Structure formats: structure tokens, C-alpha cells
Amino acid sequence: MKMLKIKDVEIGEGIPKVIIPLMGTTDQELLEELEEIKDLKPDIVEWRADAYSKVEDLTAIQSLLEKMSSKLLNIPLIFTFRTHTEGGMKEIAEDYYLKLLKTVIQTKKADLVDIELFTGETIIKEFVALAEENGVYIIISNHDFQQTPAKDEIIYRLETMQLLGGHISKIAVMPKNVQDILTLLDATITMKNKDRDHPLITMAMGPLGLISRLSGELFGSACTFGAGRTASAPGQIPADDLRNVLNIFHKYFET
Ligand SMILES: O=C1C[C@@](O)(C(=O)O)C[C@@H](O)[C@@H]1O
Q1: Phi and psi for 55 in degrees, rounded to 5?
Q2: CB 3.0–4.6 Å: which of 1, 128, 144, 245 could bond 165 by disulfide?
Q3: Name one GO biological process term (predicted).
Q4: Is 196 annotated as a binding-site member?
Q5: ipTM of this predicted complex?
Q6: Active-site residue list
Q7: Which residues contact 211 (CB under 8 A, 6 or more apart)?
Q8: 172 CA to middle of ligand 1, Å?
Q9: Whole-number percent of the chain with pLDDT over 90
């Protein structure tokens, strides 16, 4: 897996990088939350803007992004609006979703922007080109809160993300039993062994899926989400517990 270096963070190399989500709803809450999570030493911070009360105000988004990026300094920032159909907190029109992502990319204040695979191939390719012009990286993502697709389907989605030019591919699935976790891990290791040129992030959500959030160094998931003030998905454990396990794993792990 080729490594992607964003600021000083080497994604796809060594210990999986810990991403802490910001889930505040107001400017004040978000800025306080940001200070709080900085103490947890995140490798990367994700702003889950679908939780933000003023997400439909582009000027408010731009000004908050500026404040966040100036406070985060060398910590990369991901901008994510998780759509309602993929588990997000707010429903917005598709046109606005696209306008929002475009505005964020053009501010150049987020290092990475998340776009969902089902947005459509043509649009995604346009966003990848726009991001590259602006020095921003694209995570193409997919979330299944109902089930775990078959291994071939998971691989197909991750490969499609790569073919569309995304810089990182991410899939989150919901396991119904232990076998589903093996399916997700099997798809992940299969993709890792293809040795394509960009990092993957995979996870099984909910309490059953916890092992997938801890074992990325072995199976090939380059980043893992840990909760700061509030978890952004079921199954996320506190970031400091997560880091402890990742460190123990890394200490005794030999490639
Ligand atoms: O895509 C993801 C992964 C995630 O859903 C998780 O399961 O940790 C959490 C989200 O905030 C993030 O955008």
C-alpha cells in the first residue's frame, strides 16, 4: 500500500492513524470540542458537518473552517458531510451537498474532503479534479448501516473508488454476526495484497465490529476512528483506549 503523506502524517505506514470526529452543533461547541480533542493528540481530525446547525450557511462554514485549520496547525482536517441515507444527521438536497463540498474544496482549509461513492461516477471524477487543482485530497466513502455486503461486493466498491481517482477509499459496514467481520477483514486483506497505490480505511461498526477498528495494521486499514467528546458512529471507542491498543499491537507485531 503506497503511503500518502499529508502534512506530517504518513497514512498507510506503521500504526493506523487515529481520526477523532468533531460532532458539535454550534460554533462555540465546535471550537471548545476542538481544544478538548487536541489534548487527545489525534493524528487527524474529522469535522462531521452534518451535525452543525448552520451547515446550510456557506459563509458560516467557510469562517469556521478557517478558525479550525488555524487552531489545528499541523493536524490534517477532514471535512465530511455524511448524508442521511448513509447514516448522517441531517437531510439536505443533493444540489446543496455538491455545492457545499465544492465550496469547502475551494477554501483549501480542509486537507481532505469526504465524498460518498453513490454520488455518481461523473460527479466524483469532477470533484477529484477540482480537489487536485486546489491541493486537497479526496476520500471516497461508502457506509452500509444495515448489513455487510459480500466480499466481492466490498472489493468491487473499493476498487471503483480507486478507479475514480480517490486518494483514500473507505467503507464502513454493519456486521450481523462474527462471520460478517471476517468478510470485511478478508476483503480488506485482499485489497491490501493487490498493492494498489493508495490507502484504504475499512471498519465493521457496532460492538461486534470492534476488532476491525483495532487490527488495521495487520489487515490493511490505514486509519481508525476514535471518539473524542462524542462518537460519530456505533462501535467507536474512546480515542485514548484505541491508541493504547494500537500501540500494544504495533509493539509486538512483526511484518
Ligand atoms: O466514515 C466514517 C467512519 C465512521 O462511520 C465509523 O464507523 O467510524 C465514522 C464517521 O465519522 C466517518 O466519516
Answers
A1: -65, -15
A2: 128
A3: chorismate biosynthetic process
A4: no
A5: 0.99
A6: 143, 170
A7: 181, 204
A8: 7
A9: 96
51-83 pLDDT tens trace: 999 999 999 999 999 999 999 999 999 999 999
- What is the Å distance from ligand 1's center to 236 Cα? 9
Which residue owns the Cα nearest ligand 1 atom 3? 172
Q: Closest ligand 1 atom, CA of 236?
A: 8
Q: Looking at residues 112-141, what average pLDDT do you find?
A: 98
Q: What is the pTM of this model?
A: 0.98
Q: Does domain 17-247 have CATH number 3.30.470.20?
A: no
Q: 202: CA distance to ligand 1 center in Å?
A: 9
Confidence of residue 255 (pLDDT cuts 50, 70, 90): low
Mutation to probe ligand 1, out of 77, 115, 143 (largest number of atoms < 8 A from CB):
143
Which helix or strand (DSSP H or E) is residue 131 part of? helix 121-133
The domains of the chain are located at 17-247
pLDDT, one tens digit per residue, over 92-102 is: 999 999 999 99
Closest Cα to residue 144, out of 180, 183, 117, 174? 174
